[in-house]
Amino acid sequence: MKKVVFILLLSVITMNSFYAQTLKIGIKGGLNYANLTDTSIKTDAITSYHAGLIGEISLSDSFALQPELLYSTQGASYKNAIGEFKNELGYISIPLLAKINLNKSISLEMGPQASFLLSKKDEFNLNDYNSFDFSVNGGLGLKLTKSLFIQARYNLGLSEISKNADAKNSVFQLSAGILF
């Protein structure tokens, strides 16, 4: 995995010297509607948040790379006869998205995401959390002005959150941001 990330970063740096592209940096934040895909128990989604930095490297009028650095809280809740239990996991997420501009306002965004577990509020008593989470993202972006944008994205976890549970992250995100 480290080799893949290194090759992607090296490719971006190399492309940077070959193309006369535009680099924009900004901030974004928004709501997460997060749940766990789990075959053994029924969980309910929680509403949480994400916030961080966004970059846009335009390679042409219709294509850009969009790296991000986000703090994102994810998890789920579980109800039984005793009460409701909540699981909230805090990640540093690094999505690297291909951004295809369908027209001047709407873009299709998709790509991989690596996340690293920073914190956990664990009422499920799942021990041995995996510190790394790999997922894929897909969604749409809408430019409101030259700098302001909104995004809707689905994040599908591909790795299990714990060695003791068959559960993966599943997150729908709504974001707003500004590029400088």
From TrEMBL:
Domain Outer membrane protein beta-barrel: 20-161
Pfam families: OMP_b-brl_2
Name this polypeptide is given: Porin family protein
